[in-house]
Specification:
The complex is a heterodimer of chains A (92) and B (380).
Chain A: E1 9-12, E2 17-21, E3 26-31, E4 34-37, H1 40-46, H2 55-65, H3 72-84, E5 88-91
Antiparallel strand pairs in A: 1-5, 2-3, 3-4
Chain B: E1 26-30, H1 57-70, E2 74-78, H2 88-98, E3 101-106, H3 113-122, E4 126-131, H4 136-143, H5 148-160, E5 165-171, H6 179-189, E6 193-198, H7 203-207, H8 209-212, H9 216-230, E7 238-242, E8 262-265, E9 271-272, H10 293-299, H11 301-304, H12 322-325, H13 330-337, H14 353-365
Parallel strand pairs in B: 1-2, 1-8, 2-3, 3-4, 4-5, 5-6, 6-7
Antiparallel strand pairs in B: 8-9
Helix pairs in contact in B: 1-2, 2-3
The chains are: A alpha+beta (92), B alpha/beta (380).
């Protein structure tokens, strides 16, 4: 699996769209003729992947939003998986 | 248009509870049956000229709003050739503002630079372009038109306007030996995705079935070439190879089960749980001219008939795989056995499976040079 630097700035990959779907009570990733329904933690991470925030920013933001600590490893693992699946890309 | 409805479905979507089906996540507008092409493998009904008048712009827009409120999120715009409708941009703009992901499924005929600009401005997300083959001669022969050069230009426009490019090529006996050239062409065009969709036998394709079915050897070679292409270094296209179900031993989970996620609105407003369901006898399908999308989806007999498994007969009824493939395709069961509630005869547990193996055997035995003419989809 791809390893992701903590300074990396992930963004939703070109051609994909992330949006909240009230009918499904979930974030979904939309792409040509397809859809991936995200669970709540995946949705929370992905909606912060705006190509501006680094992995460190995203983790800090999540830890604050959910009053949690030690999320860095989970965030990195998810982002690496999502890059492998071409859901996210790393901004140069 | 795509001849493979199932390739569009995302299998990660779970089968919803029968008591309260989930929303029609996938909405397909077959905006018109009019089409400049005359493809021999088209799945449109062969009596499309006898269907009613096309819905007006306002009808399509109302259906968009009602479906979106229920939770529809993917919108396919197909036909016929959807570019024939001059309100396509209006429909796309409304869909985009409602939050749909919009997919135009087109032959490319009618897509010039001003039109693609307008569609981009309206918020169109994606264009799927169909090719019939890799060469002008075969493309033009199989669609009974002269469109290859035009499609090549459209492919360049799709790149220029920064769309992900999905090329769809329907495979059959007459072009399946050209898979390598087709993939080379797709690579040259800069395609992101290629769908090599073997023909599914509905409509015109069913009428031409015995002359479109490939041989097992053709199929094996095509899969081998595809696999080799996928492994080429630096190869970036994602290639989907959809095997023709006639060569399988278990049926496809058609539409993820009828009435599960898929809603088609045909040109005259008839709502169907799959592209071909209009053929099913004894079932009345609702029309959006007189019914709301909510009542179409949740209340109508047409959509409830094949939900759940109480309609099933043996061997499906007691089959441990019935929630995996839902008995296969109702239309195929009807076309081949005369009863839509039978198991799809593609399944080798079906007592009618021989109908499929015999068709494959007949196609194998056919000489390579045909005397019996193909029937081009025609308006006459």
């Amino acid at each position: 699996m791809t390893s992701i630097a903590t300074s990396a700035r992930p963004a939703i990959a070109r051609g994909l769209r992330l949006q909240w779907e009230p009918a499904q009570q979930a974030h979904v990733l939309l792409y040509p003729e397809g859809m991936i329904k995200l669970n709540s933690s995946a949705g929370e991470i992905m909606k912060r992947c705006d190509g501006k925030r680094t992995l460190i920013d995203i983790t800090a933001d999540l830890e604050q939003a959910f009053a949690a600590t030690g999320l860095a490893k989970d965030v990195e693992a998810f982002v690496a998986m999502a890059v492998d699946k071409h859901w996210l890309e790393i901004q140069p | 248009m795509s001849a493979d409805p199932n390739s569009m479905l995302e299998s990660r979507v779970a089968r919803p509870d029968i008591a309260r089906p989930g929303p029609p996540l996938w909405l397909l507008f077959e905006l018109t049956y009019r089409c400049p092409l005359h493809c021999v493998f088209c799945y449109n009904p062969t009596d499309f000229l006898r269907t009613g008048a096309e819905l007006a712009t306002d009808d399509w827009l109302r259906v968009l709003r009602e479906a979106r409120a229920l939770g529809s999120v993917q919108l396919g715009l197909s036909g016929g050739e959807p570019l024939v409708r001059d309100d396509l941009e209006i429909i796309v703009a409304e869909a985009h503002s409602l939050g749909f992901y919009t997919n135009l499924i087109t032959s490319g005929v009618g897509l010039n630079e001003s039109r693609i600009q307008a569609l981009k401005a309206a918020g169109l997300d994606h264009i799927q372009l169909s090719f019939q083959d890799s060469t002008r001669e075969m493309n033009d022969f199989l669609s009974s038109t002269r469109t290859f050069e035009l499609k090549s230009k459209v492919a360049a426009l799709i790149k220029k306007y920064d769309y992900p490019m999905v090329l769809n090529v329907v495979l059959h006996r007459l072009n399946i030996d050209h898979v390598e050239q087709i993939l080379d062409m797709a690579e040259k065009f800069g395609a992101d995705y290629v769908e090599l969709a073997n023909t599914q036998y509905y409509g015109w394709a069913q009428r031409n079935r015995d002359r479109l079915l490939p041989s097992r050897e053709q199929l094996r070679r095509a899969e081998e070439v595809t696999q080799r292409f996928r492994q080429k270094p630096g190869q970036r296209m994602r290639i989907f190879f959809v095997v023709p179900d006639y060569f399988e031993r278990r049926p496809k989970p058609c539409m993820n089960g009828l009435g599960s996620i898929f809603l088609t609105i045909t040109p005259d407003g008839t709502a169907l749980p799959c592209h071909a369901a209009r053929m099913l006898p004894g079932i009345e399908f609702p029309n959006v001219r007189t019914s709301s999308v909510e009542s179409v989806w949740y209340q109508s007999e047409g959509f409830n008939h094949f939900r759940g498994d109480s309609w099933m007969k043996e061997p499906c009824r007691s089959c441990p795989e019935k929630h995996k493939d839902f008995g296969g395709c109702r239309c195929q069961a009807y076309m081949l056995t005369g009863d839509a509630a039978n198991a799809d005869p593609v399944c080798d547990l079906s007592p009618h499976h021989h109908l499929v193996t015999e068709a494959v055997a007949r196609a194998e035995a056919l000489p390579r040079v045909e005397e019996k003419p193909l029937i081009f989809r025609d308006h006459r």
